[in-house]
Amino acid sequence: MLKRILLHNLPAKIAAVPMMLTVLVVFVGCTIWTIYYSMTNSKLLPTGKFIGFDQYERLFATSRWNVSVTNLIAYGVMSLVFTLVIGFVLAVLIDQKIRFESAFRTVMLYPFALSFIVTGLVWQWIMNPTLGLQGTLRNLGWTNFTFDWIANPRMVLFALLIAGLWHGTGFCMVLMLAGLRGVDEEIWKAARVDGIPTWRTYISIVLPMMRGVLVTAVVIIGSGIVRLYDLVVALTNGGPGISSEVPAKYVFNYMFSGGNIGQGLAGATMMLLTVLIIMIPWAYLEYGGKGKRT
User: Fold this and answer.
1) pLDDT digits (tens, 9 = 90+) for 20-30
2) What's the rounded Cα separation, in Å, for the pair 97 and 179?
3) Which one, of 153, 144, 147, lies nearest residue 127 by Cα?
4) Which residues of the chain have pLDDT under 70?
5) Cys-Cys with 266: which of 38, 232, 255, 283 at CB 3.0–4.6 Å?
6) Residue ranges of the ABC transmembrane type-1 domain (predicted)?
7) Is residue 41 part of a domain?
């Protein structure tokens, strides 16, 4: 019996061996390595002695880390909500079989094809108080016009949000549109016969049916938020001061600029923990929950 199981679909199992080894060696191995050396006092090289959770105590006692976490939470909540809402609204509009639908989809999805570095640089030029939109409109006569968000500590997160939404909303729109196109037309006919308003049909019937698409969108967007780095470096470089600092930048600076590998790996481990908090409920809802219902 065991031999039959091992020989069943043997070519596919052999083909999967390299990927399995990659997962075990690279992902699992590097994760264990990261967690272990985050509990050492390593500086320039990972050669320090084991000190337990001291690095984590120092991490959460550092104002820069706390500011970066607060910034990420604020940016993440706004980005997740606005990306889902705007993406869904755009998908609903396109689902009305509008003219030039393919062209509109391409235009909306094009920013996602650009890297965050390019997106950050483009929006840095636009928001530059001297050379960007503010300077252009002042030269045209609107001398009181102000748009200096990347230089304003209170508004810099909104500048990041605008650039992030421009980059990712199109991708969310495509996911939502795929979910909408999967809704049976008979459901719409039944809703119209029952006299249910269109907006109520979307909220009460269509959205619950798109649960899988919504969960996938939340996981993809959430994972991208946790790893936010390129956009911040290109647009604000964490400034003014540390008002737009994020955990990924904190980790990079401590590991490669600050010469404190232990502290950087402690921050990386906390980011990994955040990703797991996002992924585990998703995996349970997609696989574990289904097994219990059947």
Assistant:
1) 888 788 888 88
2) 15
3) 147
4) 1-8, 10, 286-294
5) 38
6) 69-284
7) no
Q: What's the pTM? A: 0.85
Yes or no: say if 156 and 243 are a contact pair by the CB < 8 Å rule: yes
Helices (H), 9-128: 10-22, 29-37, 54-61, 63-94, 101-113, 116-127
Please identify which residue in the block is written with the tokens 């094809």: 113
Upper half-sphere CA count for residue 294 (Cβ side, 13 Å)? 6
Whole-angstrom CA distances from 266 to 21, 88, 169, 223, 273 are 26, 37, 32, 18, 11
CB 160 within 8 A of CB 232: yes
Is residue 64 one of the residues assigned to a domain?
yes
Cα distance from N-terminal residue to C-terminal residue, the chain:
27
Name residues whose C-beta falls within 8 Å of residue 15's C-beta, 6 or more positions apart in sequence.
none
Which domain does 154 fall in, by range? Answer: 58-293
Counted domains in the chain: 1
Residues 6 or more apart whose CB falls under 8 angstroms from that of 139 comprise none
Number of H helices, E strands in the chain: 17, 0
Q: Of 156, 162, 165, 166, nearest to 237 (Cα)?
A: 156
Measure the CA–CA gap between 265 and 30, rounded to whole angstroms: 11
